[in-house]
Amino acid sequence: MELNLWHVGAIVAVGLAQGFLNIVAGGGAFLVLPMLTFLGMDLAMANGTNRIAILLQSVSGATSFRRDKILSFRSALPLALVATLGATAGAFTAVKVDKATLNIVVAGLISVMAVLLLGKPEMWEGRKDRRWSRWMTYALFAGIGFYGGFIQAGAGLFISWGLAAAAGVDLVEGNAIKSVIIGCYTAVSLAIFFANGMVDPPVGLVLAVGSVVGAWIGAKFTVAKGNRWIRRILVVVVIVSAAKMIGDVW
Predict the structure, then answer these.
(1) pLDDT at 100 over 80
(2) Greatest CA separation for the chain
(3) Do 47 and 202 form a contact (C-beta atoms < 8 A)?
(4) 221 contact partners, CB below 8 Å, separation of at least 6
(5) How far apart are the C-alpha atoms of 243 and 225, rounded to whole Å?
């Protein structure tokens, strides 16, 4: 895709919004993929290209969380490993699954998440002693990784839920761990998409400029505002994301 000045400005702006949303809540790709296709990029190419920005924004977010002493690699890396294994399989099968069916299933799951966000705030806003077993948690994150490797859009929402429900982590620490998980599996899925000619590096790097700055702002916002504000933003994002997925089908 050829870039003119207007394209660069629009891509940086949507990257900024994506970086902030992905670190604070998730669903930023729902902004980027339509924008890139509107500018003339094929959806499959957009799906691969966006991963450059996602990888770099994850590094930016993780670095900021680490400096603020929020991030524990000991908690993040085992989940990142199993999610990366799932994402590898997801990336290899990205062109073989009926997207309409997938959208309906994911929209339903996200809608349930919205209900839990509204009706059970205590599930998200504090650490819990009761957690899933280690192997059930690993299986869950392998599944989330598969989805992230396949399409990425909305994967951060499922990671936030998994960290709260299965790992007993609050939203602030969860956002820090999420940045590591997404960064690790995105590195692998990006390599797979690139090897298959489904990445446009110049566009991806322009998008990354905005995403890295947005991720840094999002990490600072998370630390400053805490769990309650993160949950409120998540409510809005999951409702809009579910509506977007259902709308894509119809």
Answers:
(1) no
(2) 53
(3) no
(4) 20, 24, 229
(5) 27
